[in-house]
């Protein structure tokens, strides 16, 4: 197994200098022991508790406490257990499970009665009936926008992970398992996925995947085949593909962009200065910008989307620059969310960004010209991807192209 976790640590991250716009809740609010983010030894109290960081940037911090706005209930309940079992029988991989989503527990308490047909994906699986096949990353998603236990507006999105559950890269923020030689893709997966999704009667779906550097085209053809099968079975469905960078292969990007999908999503993940600390060395800031630029350029009317994690040590000015860089290549949709450490082998949280600061970033993004900005502590890449506003925007773009031709 090859992982960037095994590589020598890169230079220390930039200092936590901050702008004045909005307050932030530091991950280490107490003055002692000191923040150990640059390789200094742990204090005696930490050593006594058995805490030993594997690298200067990772390891559990025994004194860090999540703020109240990030605390979620553990996954439990009959509905959650049935969902996990049915997904296993279908052999479908979900981002919620593989990436250890902090909000997955909400599925056991999802208020199905508050969701509309376009929000909840229902499939009859073997002996089970009407199993909710939702895969998204927030209480708002499970509950149709209402948060944990609240009434919602009925907007949620299915996110299906293609190409298996094993990634060939080892990014320091991601909990998906890694290997140099993952199992080969299921050749029938595109058709099986398309048949299943078409049978659910939904209007919007997100297809994503692990990185597959072991495949010549990075999995682009597998994505494209799935999109074409979906569109053939249900021409009106809107399909978003949240892809890897395909190692910067622009032909692979163009092939997928021209397969019939409606939204091309690729995450830049973090600011430029943090790329080598946060992402696998095979990823890169300019490479990600190149993917999004190519997707926009090779198909007229293509809607593009990206995402940024906050709380890794980035500054306000760096966030603004990243947002400006995305707008410079005409990215339409942006999501911003709080980074949360999956395990002690992954990067520590440098700070917890307040909901008020996330509101500031939403307003700032909209002022730059993003068509839609989802910004909040628990927002993830697929957050409210099927939002009615987004659906209408995509459909309007498609209609404009048809009328122009």
From TrEMBL:
Domain Radical SAM core: start-end pairs: 150-371
Residues bound to [4Fe-4S] cluster 2: 167, 171, 174
Q: Which residues does [4Fe-4S] cluster 1 bind?
A: 96, 101, 382
Q: Does the keyword Iron apply?
A: yes
Q: Which family does it belong to?
A: Belongs to the radical SAM superfamily. Lipoyl synthase family.
Primary enzyme class = transferase
Species annotation: Aegilops tauschii subsp. strangulata (Goatgrass)
Q: Which GO terms describe its cellular component?
A: chloroplast; mitochondrion
Q: What is this enzyme's EC?
A: 2.8.1.8
- InterPro entries on file: Aldolase_TIM, Elp3/MiaA/NifB-like_rSAM, LIAS_N, Lipoyl_synth, Lipoyl_synth_chlpt, rSAM, rSAM_sf
Q: In which pathway does it act?
A: Protein modification; protein lipoylation via endogenous pathway; protein N(6)-(lipoyl)lysine from octanoyl-[acyl-carrier-protein]: step 2/2
- The name of this protein is Lipoyl synthase, chloroplastic
Required co-factor(s) are: [4Fe-4S] cluster
Superkingdom of source = Eukaryota
Q: Which HAMAP family match?
A: Lipoyl_synth, Lipoyl_synth_plantC
